[in-house]
Amino acid sequence: MKVHFLGAAQTVTGSCYLIEACGIRFTVDCGMHQGNSEIEARNFDTDIYQSGNIDFILLTHAHIDHSGLLPRIVHEGFKGSIYCTPPTAALAGLMLEDSAHIQEMEAEWRQKKQKRHTGQNGKSKEIVPLYTVEDARKVPDQFRLVEYNKTFEPHPGIAVTYKDAGHILGSAFLELTVTEDGKTTRVVFSGDLGRPGTLLMHDPVVASQADYLFIESTYGDRNHKNEEATFDELAEAIAYSYNNHDKVIIPAFAVGRTQEILYCLYLLRQKGKLPDDMPIFVDSPLAIRATEVFKEFKDYLDTPEIDLSGNMSALLPNLKFTLSALESQALNVMKGPAIIISASGMCNAGRIQHHLRHNAWRPTASIVFVGYQGVGTPGRKIVDGASSIRLFNEDVAIKAKVFTIGGFSAHAGQSQILDWIRKMAHPGMQVVLVHGEEKAQQILSGLIKDQFHLSVHAPGYLEEMALAAGATPEVVVTAQPKSYAHVDWELLLEETEGKLSKLRTRLEKAGERPWDEQVDIRDRILELNKELLSVLTQL
């Protein structure tokens, strides 16, 4: 049995583990890489998947970093079954089509930008989207629905059980039993592991003992705040902007986090901590449609009595859902106070970017982060203290008060990961850390070794590992150098300094040019200075 790490290996996004066993190839998840340009470039490098030779896919849940490349590999020839729970199928269908719209719009925007630089008749390279809406609409035909706790065999010798991971609606961790050559290997893939005691989800159930545990490590380096502290901090953010007659901007994942925030606002209203006249807007078409799915599958929730769709207007009288672009744009000219919940949660796409553009520079506004922010994303830059971020080709100052509330995370914190492992740990179990950044994995690895005396490995991108029951995993292909962004800073600085030297020489004759040309050159150099200042601030 061999595992290829095609994503979420020393990073948090792009979950995909390609497994070779019993003479076939299948994957656990097929997620999109999100973050900086180096990471996102991996989305186009799908030849390594050999899509037409994948027999089936086991999908743990609907989030784009776990499902987002399904349309691309279907386009490239994958024809097998995609196994998932009924809520995951419903949510993934919505999310993939929404993602495809974004891919098409971004490709169109880049094409227009390129033509503006080359001219209408100039040579320009055709820019194609990662995948199209048509590709996304083909994926649901390949979904095969499975229920929790019912073992099935997608192929002889491979038995799979989906169990409730408590992360988002329909999320699961997987228990695999692989039998080949008369030997059986038990493997658990945690997917995204939820937190006990969240507002909407059931607690993650206990996993069976396994030879190998592939465990997420998003928050392997820290714990979350408790519920009371979380509620208090959100109430503080609301009060800050309400008292200043301004807006509270909440970037939130459309699936799971938005619905949990709405329920939290309802509870704050019950406690008298939400002003009665504070308008609340959910400005995300995907979140609105996803909320309907929550209504349809409310029996999967820990609070089925709360109707997050039809009954929310009674629970939150000032709640409004904005579907159209015109309604969304109206929010940017409307005066506060108001709460605006919008996607995407990492601020790397969607309507949230417009709300940040119109509000992030206002000292009386607040930005409330309620989820993980990936490396290189605009949200991560704001959380890390950037003085400005780049949106729509302009620098937007960050003057709003920034709140980072970890207590809303749908991922288990450090101690919760350890508690979950404790209930299944046994001598000889091998632990493989995935879905986490290197720092978090190093800390979590040390704790697992100290507390459970288990072997721990954190594979890199494109690493391959051989598994056998009772044996330490053997790395057969190490992480490939091309998986890492090695920047030659000296060469880059030499080239930049060389161009500046040429600029200085040529500017000696700039005074001979017409006045309007001189002003144009001056303005362009000022723009370069602003870019350099932005880089210096980030460093």
From TrEMBL:
Keyword field: Hydrolase
InterPro entries named among the record's database cross-references: Beta_Casp, MBL, Metallo-B-lactamas, RibonucZ/Hydroxyglut_hydro, RMMBL
Keyword Hydrolase on entry: yes
Keyword field contains Plastid: no
Organism: Bilophila wadsworthia (strain 3_1_6)
Entry-linked Gene3D superfamilies: 3.40.50.10890, Ribonuclease Z/Hydroxyacylglutathione hydrolase-like
Record's protein name: Metallo-beta-lactamase
GO MF terms held by the record: hydrolase activity; RNA endonuclease activity
Chain ranges of the Beta-Casp domain: 258-382
Sequence ranges assigned to domain Metallo-beta-lactamase in this UniProt record: 13-245
